[in-house]
Amino acid sequence: MIIPKLALRNMLGAGIKTWLNAAVLSMAFVTIIGAQGLYRGWDADISRIMTAAEYGGGQYWVKGFDPYDPFTLQDAHAAVPPALTERVEAGKATALLYVPATIYPGGRIRSVVLKGIEPGQKALEFPSSALAGSGAELPALIGNRMAKAAGLAKGDTVTARWRDARGSYDARDLTIVEVMRTSVQSIDEGQIWMPLQTLRKMAGMPGEATMVTLAKDIPAPGAIPGWDFKGLDLLLKDIRDLIAAKQIGGSIVYVILMFLAMLAVFDTQLLSIWRRRKEIGTMMAMGVTRGRAVALFTLEGGLNGVFAALLGAVWGIPLLAYFAKHGMTFTSEQADSFGMAVDKGIFPVYGAGLVLGTTFLVFAVTLIVSYLPARKISRLKATDALRGRMS
Amino acid sequence: MRKTALGIILLLLAAGAAAALAARAQAPSAETILDRVDRNAVPGTKIIVAEMTIHGRRDSRTIKAKSWIQGEEKAFTEYLDPPRERGVKMLKLGDQLWTYSPDADRTIAISGHMLRQSVMGSDMSYEDMMEDSKLRQAYEAKVSGEEACAGRPCWVLEMTAKAGETAYPARKAWVDKERYVVLKEERYAKSGKLLKTLEVKSVVSKGGRWIQDRAVFRDVLKPGSGTEMVILSIELDPVIPDVVFSKASLRK
């Protein structure tokens, strides 16, 4: 027990030197917890909003449909099977039809996907009701990004050209009945939403769909021939991979911070051993084993981690609590620059595992970094140390 | 006297009606016109050097290309000019299309939504290039009238697609009465909306066929003056080795 007491006394006795090290280390400490919490919060937030607006409880895709392969789009339609029709009629699912098209806004050409959705559907948190009761012959709903990119606004008409199920060209003027504000890019950019029955008629695809999205928490009815079920794990995988990639990129910052903090601890340890070599020699002459001397210096260095945790708690807890409550807000342009859905802001989530894990990590690394210079003591002769020599 | 005058008037009316009927009897049927148009338009093989001038909103640019064509099924095109496009090649085999870009040294199959993209920014899409050019097979037609077009007397043909899978469900064409070559054409969507127009500016005789050597193709849904195509030279019925129409020739 004497070693920890002695270590604590020595560290407190070192005064400003100790607290400077602890301050630098606490920055790394709080930054790691803050950044990790931010990514966790983002993951939770993105899963929530994408599930609500797009993925629901999972999707049945018509066989051959691949959202990342536009080549598959033209033929990606089939009659909705009875097992899914039942759920659609019960409001537990919604059918979506995709038809590739070209629009001509303001004399420019843009490739888009016309997407049919039931205006009265309740399976998704999607403002499809805007498509009902507008009085327009061919009502269309677009997102704010699409509106900006195509230069379209509510009340505008735009000519769309598409090929029907048999390959024949058709072209009509669509009326933009609403521009929705959404944080989910994947239901916005390059897409025009229309009433499902209208699109089915336009494309000559009665009763057909490209996918059927189940409402949240509605179990999948099992395997359906001609349709593939895609669960939330798969649907959210890309987004989660992207967050993980951003997380790895972000971790470089705290690796640098940790490195700087550890460098400070390492240097302090080296300097401390050099300056206290006579003290070490005296301790050894009085019967303190080399191992205990090494333990004393390692523990002194390790206490930097404890002080950093305490100091970090003093200024970090209020700061992190503030962000957890108010979130990190972005303008819509900033949010779009992330390349994926970000709601009004990101609200960090700090779990006990995250805090304890980070504390353990910082403490373990500090101990290792403290031990490395302290090893020198194990090779030190007491007589040399007493004379102020390092052998 | 009055009876004689009435008799003459009736005789003249009858003669006029007979002449009109005779003229109508001489007018070929719409099918015959389309047959002759197809014969003119679809020779066996040909090698063409042509220029395509794309008139955009701000400026115009010209692309020169050489094409080896065999019937409707096979076509191989190599872009010669401008330097930026030089070496780009395109191969059409039936309903398949590939392009080769020397910069990327890659061959890309054009299908799906890419077929809707315009060729080199022109008014013509890849789909337009893939269209079956035999009108007689694809359309029911009727002669809806006679009109002068580009200073030539023409039959006006209204065509309706026989099958649902034809790209343009309706077309209207002005066919030269003597040369049986389309001088003007309008292509319509199923809704009746006009999508594309073709205006032939010049026709030349070559090997017993009349060939449109200068024409403007226009996507009417977008602004601009369309894409002008000029045939600089044409060789009819040359022998083209099969290897030209192979994917291997794209990288040569």
Explain what this protein looks like in three dimensions:
Chain A contains 12 helices and 13 strands. In chain A, the strands form 3 sheets. In chain A, strands 1, 3, 4, 5, 6, 7, 8, 10 and 11 form a 9-stranded mixed sheet that branches. In chain A, strands 2-9 form a two-stranded antiparallel sheet. A two-stranded antiparallel sheet of chain A has the order 12-13. Chain A has 391 residues and is an alpha+beta fold. In chain A, helix 2 packs antiparallel against helix 7, helix 2 packs across helix 9 and helix 9 runs antiparallel to helix 11. Chain A has 2 domains: 199 residues, no CATH class; 173 residues, no CATH class. Chain A starts with a helix and ends in a 5-residue tail after the last helix. With 252 residues, chain B is an alpha+beta fold. Helices cover 18% and strands 46% of the residues of chain B. Chain B contains 4 helices and 13 strands. In chain B, strands 6-5-4-3-2-1-13-12-11-10-9-8-7 form a 13-stranded antiparallel sheet. In chain B, a hairpin with a 3-residue loop joins strand 2 and strand 3. Chain B is globular. The N and C termini of chain B lie far apart (88 Å). In chain B, 29% of the residues are buried. The chains are: A alpha+beta (391), B alpha+beta (252). Chains A and B meet through strand 6 and strand 7 of A and loops of B.
| Principal-axis shape of chain A | elongated
How many beta-strand elements of chain B?
13
Calculate the mean pLDDT score of chain A and round it: 86
**Span of the ends, CA to CA of chain B:** 88 Å
* Biggest sheet, spatial arrangement of strands of chain B: 6-5-4-3-2-1-13-12-11-10-9-8-7
**Strand coverage percent of chain B:** over 45%
Annotation, overall tally of beta strands of chain A: 13
Please give the oligomerization state of what you see.
Answer: heterodimer
N-to-C order of helices and strands of chain A: HHEEHEEEHEEEHEEEHHHHEHEHH
Our count of helices of chain A gives: 12
Structural class of chain A: alpha+beta
SSE series of chain B: HHEEEEEEHHEEEEEEE
Query: Describe the biggest sheet of chain B?
Result: 13 strands, antiparallel
Residue windows where pLDDT falls under 50 for at least 5 positions of chain A = none
Q: Which blocks of ≥5 consecutive residues of chain B have pLDDT under 50? A: 15-25
Largest interface in this structure: A-B, 25 and 25 residues
